[in-house]
Write a structure and sequence with these properties.
single chain; alpha+beta; five-stranded mixed sheet; four-stranded antiparallel sheet; 7 helices; 30 strands; WD repeat; WD40/YVTN_repeat-like_dom_sf; transcription
């Protein structure tokens, strides 16, 4: 780490020193997002739209890898360092998906990526792993440290490109791949290097998916506001649920025979998830789901809520026996669990579904339309597009969402998903049913780039500390603006000697000059 990075790290540590609870940290990050401005423009070495972009939020033993973000576009995977070079972006590695006769891969365009937990890596300095896939119908696992492919998963897809990948930080052995055209989903074991389960005939237009901690999948389709949660997919390989850390076992934990489900014949393998989007007309296809992401994690509960729960329990159980009291005390002290699904439709509606109490009691937390979005906005159709559609960025704690509104205004909208209708930070249990989340930030194009940036925001990502937001555009009118990443940052204040002089100051200097000439 260089000296500018050390100074920045020291300053940021001091800033966080005064934050004592989750609510204060949430407000601090929200204030940071309001200060962001578009500063850095990165042009990648290709002329295609960037298909997908993600920060590394895996729980790898090397925690420093959260500073990395990666993008795929054309046949390129590009990995960047977002933190260790001061406020500058550094290129870490690039992978070009070319034909490899030795590995028997055809190469070609890449359409999707997903970070993979690198617990099993034996690299002495630690590592970060990324799964990428696309036209050649194989899943390649790329090592950032080695800047090379370290594993290839093949044989699951044979008829159409892979258009989606999903992983879960608590299922370190599992990668799930999706082929929209083939209507097929494959679950891979990295340890055994094979498909352990598959779903065929998933349905027409399956565009996006997310993998939950229990191993089930939630998929979104390009028509209709109903998603599918494949519940029995993981029951075929239940050992994944029983043992989250597959790397600790030495024996084979999966059935030797691959399990297969035909979704068109077995309706029990899935259940529907209603995201509450507006119903589309028979002719409209804009209601389709573009992107789904999930967040599942223990979060800190406010001290006020803990005290209220303790007081209520003490009042209700004055006459109860000690066994019941101990059980309820354990419930009080148990961490609060937040489990949500976030989905965005092609008409720029966003829905948050809370399933913290199980899917049987899942409820729509909020549904809102992105500011200035048009209900009939056309999906991106430029020649630079690949197989994916517009996606959003979700912060590592599920608190903030960044996306465009489907129009060519070049603006990134950041919403606070924790905000309740009473205006608090959403971390309190006392809030009533929430309304639309608060708009935390509206990130505008820089005036120097506004003439070349007015395109549909294609994908977004939010850094772990909320000090950077990334955005890519669709480049509808040609290739000259494709393959560009815009980074929104906090621009430091200039020293006084570099500040532009006010109009009044210039007048005073002119008067002093005239007086000096007369004296001479």
């Amino acid at each position: 780490m260089n000296s500018p990075a050390r100074k920045i790290l020291k300053k940021r540590t001091q800033e966080l020193g005064n934050i004592s609870n989750q609510s204060d940290l949430h407000r601090f990050r929200k204030d940071l997002l309001k200060k962001l401005e578009m500063k850095t423009v990165i042009k990648e070495n290709h002329e295609r739209a960037i298909e997908e972009m993600q920060y590394n939020f895996t729980t790898s033993f090397n925690s420093k890898c959260s500073n990395l973000f990666a993008s795929v576009g054309a046949d390129m995977l590009t990995v960047y360092d977002d933190n260790h070079f001061g406020d500058h972006v550094a290129l870490v590695c690039q992978f070009k998906n070319t034909e490899n006769l030795e590995a028997k891969t055809k190469g070609g365009p890449l359409y999707c990526l997903s970070w993979v937990d690198a617990k099993r890596s034996e690299h002495e300095q630690g590592d970060a792993l990324i799964a990428v896939a696309g036209e050649d119908m194989v899943v390649s696992i790329v090592s950032v440290s080695e800047s090379a492919v370290v594993q290839i998963l093949r044989g699951g897809h044979a008829k159409a490109p892979i258009t989606g990948l999903a992983t879960n930080k608590n299922l370190s052995d599992i990668v799930v791949s999706l082929s929209e055209e083939e209507q097929k989903i494959c679950m891979w074991s990295l340890k055994e290097n094979r498909v352990i389960a598959e779903i065929i005939n998933v349905g027409i237009g399956c565009k996006t998916m997310t993998l939950l901690e229990d191993g089930s999948l939630v998929c979104g389709f390009k028509t209709g506001s109903i998603g599918k949660r494949f519940t029995n997919f993981i029951s075929l390989v239940s050992s994944v649920v029983a043992n989250n850390d597959i790397t600790t076992t030495t024996a084979t934990t999966y059935p030797k025979k691959m399990s297969s489900v035909d979704a068109s014949k077995d309706s029990k393998c899935y259940a529907t998830v209603n995201f509450g989007f507006g119903q589309a007309s028979a002719k409209s296809k804009s209601i389709g789901i573009d992107c789904i992401q999930s967040f599942e994690e223990d979060i800190e509960e406010g001290e006020d809520n803990k005290k209220k729960k303790q007081k209520k329990t003490a009042t209700d159980n004055n006459n109860n026996n000690n066994t019941k009291k101990k059980k309820e005390d354990s419930i009080i002290n148990a961490p609060k669990r937040r489990q949500i699904l976030v989905a965005k439709s092609a008409s720029s509606e966003v829905s948050v579904v809370d399933f913290s109490d199980g899917f049987d009691q899942a409820k729509i937390e909020t549904t809102f339309r992105v500011e200035d979005a048009k209900s009939n906005a056309p999906a991106p159709t430029s020649k630079t597009n690949g197989k994916r559609t517009v996606s959003f960025g979700l912060s590592h704690d599920g608190a903030f969402l960044a996306c465009g509104n489907g129009t060519r205004d070049g603006i990134v909208y950041v919403y606070d998903l924790n905000a309740k209708k009473n205006g608090n930070d959403g971390l309190s249990d006392d809030a009533a049913q929430p309304s639309s989340p608060l708009l935390a930030a509206k990130l505008l194009p820089h005036e120097r780039h506004s003439g070349t940036m007015l395109d549909v925001i294609r994908s977004c990502a939010i850094a772990k500390d909320c000090r950077h937001v990334l955005g890519t555009t669709d480049a509808n009118d040609g290739t000259n603006r494709a393959g560009i990443v815009f980074r929104y940052e906090i621009i430091p204040e200039q020293p006084k000697e570099y500040e532009p002089k006010s109009e009044g100051g210039e007048k005073e200097e002119a008067i002093e000059a005239v007086v000096e000439d007369k004296e001479n």
